[in-house]
Protein backbone atom coordinates (compact mmCIF):
# COMPACT_ATOMS: atom_id res chain seq x y z
CA UNK A 1 0.00 0.00 0.00
CA UNK A 2 2.72 2.48 0.96
CA UNK A 3 4.72 1.76 -2.21
CA UNK A 4 1.55 2.20 -4.29
CA UNK A 5 0.77 5.52 -2.58
CA UNK A 6 4.36 6.72 -2.96
CA UNK A 7 4.34 6.01 -6.70
CA UNK A 8 0.99 7.79 -7.16
CA UNK A 9 2.16 10.92 -5.31
CA UNK A 10 5.69 11.26 -6.74
CA UNK A 11 4.56 14.07 -9.05
CA UNK A 12 3.70 16.09 -5.92
CA UNK A 13 6.54 15.19 -3.56
CA UNK A 14 9.52 14.93 -5.94
CA UNK A 15 9.48 18.64 -6.98
CA UNK A 16 8.99 19.72 -3.35
CA UNK A 17 11.89 17.51 -2.23
CA UNK A 18 14.12 18.97 -4.97
CA UNK A 19 13.27 22.51 -3.79
CA UNK A 20 13.98 21.60 -0.16
CA UNK A 21 17.27 20.01 -1.22
CA UNK A 22 18.36 23.33 -2.75
CA UNK A 23 17.81 25.00 0.64
CA UNK A 24 20.39 22.70 2.22
CA UNK A 25 17.92 20.99 4.56
CA UNK A 26 18.88 17.39 5.30
CA UNK A 27 16.51 14.41 5.22
CA UNK A 28 17.15 13.77 8.92
CA UNK A 29 16.18 17.36 9.72
CA UNK A 30 12.81 16.74 8.04
CA UNK A 31 12.39 13.57 10.09
CA UNK A 32 12.98 15.50 13.32
CA UNK A 33 10.67 18.34 12.19
CA UNK A 34 7.92 15.81 11.52
CA UNK A 35 8.27 14.48 15.08
CA UNK A 36 8.22 17.99 16.57
CA UNK A 37 5.06 18.85 14.65
CA UNK A 38 3.43 15.63 15.84
CA UNK A 39 4.33 16.60 19.41
CA UNK A 40 2.61 19.96 18.88
CA UNK A 41 -0.39 18.11 17.40
CA UNK A 42 -0.49 15.88 20.49
CA UNK A 43 -0.55 18.93 22.78
CA UNK A 44 -3.37 20.47 20.72
CA UNK A 45 -5.34 17.23 21.01
CA UNK A 46 -4.75 17.05 24.78
CA UNK A 47 -6.05 20.64 25.05
CA UNK A 48 -9.26 19.63 23.19
CA UNK A 49 -8.24 21.16 19.84
CA UNK A 50 -8.80 17.78 18.22
CA UNK A 51 -9.61 19.05 14.73
CA UNK A 52 -6.54 21.31 14.56
CA UNK A 53 -4.29 18.60 15.97
CA UNK A 54 -5.58 16.25 13.27
CA UNK A 55 -5.05 18.85 10.55
CA UNK A 56 -1.47 19.50 11.70
CA UNK A 57 -0.71 15.78 11.87
CA UNK A 58 -2.30 14.91 8.52
CA UNK A 59 -1.39 17.88 6.35
CA UNK A 60 1.95 19.11 7.73
CA UNK A 61 3.69 16.43 9.83
CA UNK A 62 2.78 13.46 7.61
CA UNK A 63 3.89 15.12 4.34
CA UNK A 64 7.23 15.93 6.00
CA UNK A 65 7.52 12.27 6.98
CA UNK A 66 7.03 11.34 3.33
CA UNK A 67 9.41 14.05 2.13
CA UNK A 68 12.36 12.90 4.26
CA UNK A 69 12.71 9.66 2.30
CA UNK A 70 11.99 11.39 -1.01
CA UNK A 71 14.67 13.99 -0.24
CA UNK A 72 17.17 11.30 0.77
CA UNK A 73 16.64 9.54 -2.58
CA UNK A 74 16.82 12.82 -4.55
CA UNK A 75 20.11 13.81 -2.88
CA UNK A 76 21.47 10.25 -2.96
CA UNK A 77 21.77 10.44 0.83
CA UNK A 78 19.93 7.26 1.83
CA UNK A 79 21.70 5.88 4.90
CA UNK A 80 21.08 3.07 7.36
CA UNK A 81 21.00 5.59 10.19
CA UNK A 82 18.44 7.72 8.32
CA UNK A 83 16.17 4.70 7.86
CA UNK A 84 16.64 3.77 11.52
CA UNK A 85 15.94 7.32 12.73
CA UNK A 86 12.83 7.57 10.55
CA UNK A 87 11.44 4.30 11.93
CA UNK A 88 12.14 5.18 15.55
CA UNK A 89 10.74 8.71 15.33
CA UNK A 90 7.64 7.35 13.56
CA UNK A 91 6.99 5.27 16.70
CA UNK A 92 7.51 8.34 18.89
CA UNK A 93 5.07 10.29 16.70
CA UNK A 94 2.37 7.63 16.91
CA UNK A 95 2.84 7.30 20.67
CA UNK A 96 2.67 11.09 21.10
CA UNK A 97 -0.69 11.31 19.33
CA UNK A 98 -2.06 8.42 21.42
CA UNK A 99 -0.75 10.03 24.62
CA UNK A 100 -2.40 13.31 23.62
CA UNK A 101 -5.68 11.44 23.25
CA UNK A 102 -5.19 9.66 26.57
CA UNK A 103 -4.64 13.05 28.26
CA UNK A 104 -7.84 14.31 26.62
CA UNK A 105 -9.88 11.30 27.75
CA UNK A 106 -8.46 11.40 31.29
CA UNK A 107 -10.10 14.83 31.63
CA UNK A 108 -13.49 13.40 30.65
CA UNK A 109 -12.83 10.16 32.59
CA UNK A 110 -13.67 8.05 29.53
CA UNK A 111 -12.17 4.76 30.67
CA UNK A 112 -13.02 2.82 27.50
CA UNK A 113 -11.45 5.46 25.26
CA UNK A 114 -8.31 5.47 27.43
CA UNK A 115 -8.14 1.68 27.20
CA UNK A 116 -8.68 1.85 23.42
CA UNK A 117 -5.86 4.41 23.03
CA UNK A 118 -3.53 2.27 25.12
CA UNK A 119 -4.38 -0.80 23.06
CA UNK A 120 -3.92 1.13 19.79
CA UNK A 121 -0.51 2.36 20.95
CA UNK A 122 0.51 -1.16 21.99
CA UNK A 123 -0.77 -2.60 18.71
CA UNK A 124 1.16 -0.04 16.68
CA UNK A 125 4.38 -0.95 18.47
CA UNK A 126 3.70 -4.66 17.93
CA UNK A 127 3.09 -4.18 14.19
CA UNK A 128 6.49 -2.50 13.90
CA UNK A 129 8.24 -4.90 16.25
CA UNK A 130 7.01 -8.04 14.47
CA UNK A 131 8.35 -6.69 11.19
CA UNK A 132 11.67 -5.60 12.70
CA UNK A 133 12.15 -8.93 14.46
CA UNK A 134 11.28 -10.90 11.32
CA UNK A 135 13.70 -8.86 9.24
CA UNK A 136 16.34 -9.43 11.92
CA UNK A 137 15.88 -13.13 11.17
CA UNK A 138 16.24 -12.46 7.45
CA UNK A 139 12.51 -12.80 6.66
CA UNK A 140 10.74 -10.12 4.61
CA UNK A 141 7.62 -9.13 6.57
CA UNK A 142 5.49 -6.43 4.93
CA UNK A 143 2.25 -8.41 5.15
CA UNK A 144 -0.79 -7.23 7.07
CA UNK A 145 -3.77 -4.98 6.73
CA UNK A 146 -2.60 -2.00 8.82
CA UNK A 147 0.63 -0.40 7.58
CA UNK A 148 1.99 2.86 8.99
CA UNK A 149 0.27 4.85 6.24
CA UNK A 150 -3.09 3.24 6.99
CA UNK A 151 -2.68 3.90 10.73
CA UNK A 152 -2.06 7.59 10.06
CA UNK A 153 -5.00 7.79 7.64
CA UNK A 154 -7.39 6.15 10.12
CA UNK A 155 -6.20 8.44 12.92
CA UNK A 156 -6.48 11.53 10.70
CA UNK A 157 -10.04 10.63 9.70
CA UNK A 158 -10.91 10.10 13.35
CA UNK A 159 -9.45 13.42 14.50
CA UNK A 160 -10.64 15.59 11.63
CA UNK A 161 -14.00 13.85 11.18
CA UNK A 162 -14.84 13.91 14.91
CA UNK A 163 -15.07 10.11 15.11
CA UNK A 164 -11.96 9.65 17.20
CA UNK A 165 -13.22 6.88 19.51
CA UNK A 166 -14.28 4.80 16.50
CA UNK A 167 -10.86 5.41 14.90
CA UNK A 168 -9.03 4.43 18.08
CA UNK A 169 -10.85 1.12 18.41
CA UNK A 170 -10.40 0.45 14.69
CA UNK A 171 -6.65 0.98 15.13
CA UNK A 172 -6.55 -1.15 18.28
CA UNK A 173 -8.31 -4.12 16.70
CA UNK A 174 -6.67 -3.96 13.26
CA UNK A 175 -3.15 -3.39 14.58
CA UNK A 176 -3.42 -6.46 16.80
CA UNK A 177 -4.85 -8.41 13.85
CA UNK A 178 -1.93 -7.23 11.69
CA UNK A 179 0.53 -8.43 14.34
CA UNK A 180 -1.13 -11.85 14.27
CA UNK A 181 -0.93 -11.87 10.45
CA UNK A 182 2.80 -11.19 10.69
CA UNK A 183 3.33 -13.88 13.31
CA UNK A 184 1.55 -16.37 11.03
CA UNK A 185 3.64 -15.21 8.06
CA UNK A 186 6.90 -15.71 9.94
CA UNK A 187 5.72 -19.09 11.21
CA UNK A 188 5.05 -20.23 7.64
CA UNK A 189 8.35 -18.78 6.40
CA UNK A 190 10.38 -20.50 9.11
CA UNK A 191 8.62 -23.83 8.51
CA UNK A 192 9.64 -23.79 4.85
CA UNK A 193 13.24 -22.91 5.80
CA UNK A 194 13.65 -25.69 8.37
Automatic annotation (TrEMBL):
GO biological process: phospholipid biosynthetic process
Pfam family, one: CDP-OH_P_transf
Alphabetical UniProt keywords: Membrane, Transferase, Transmembrane, Transmembrane helix
Molecular function GO terms recorded: phosphotransferase activity, for other substituted phosphate groups
Membrane spanning stretches: 49-67, 112-132, 152-177
Name of the molecule in the record: CDP-alcohol phosphatidyltransferase family protein
Keyword field contains Membrane: yes
GO cellular component, one term: membrane
Organism: Planktothricoides sp. SpSt-374
Family, as annotated: Belongs to the CDP-alcohol phosphatidyltransferase class-I family.
UniProt KW DNA repair keyword: no
Amino acid sequence: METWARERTRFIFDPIANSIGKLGISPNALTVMSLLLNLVAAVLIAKSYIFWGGMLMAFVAMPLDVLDGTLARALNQETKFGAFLDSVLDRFSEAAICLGLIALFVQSQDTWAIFGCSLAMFGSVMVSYTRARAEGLGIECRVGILTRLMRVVVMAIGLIGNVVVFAIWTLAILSLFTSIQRIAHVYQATRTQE
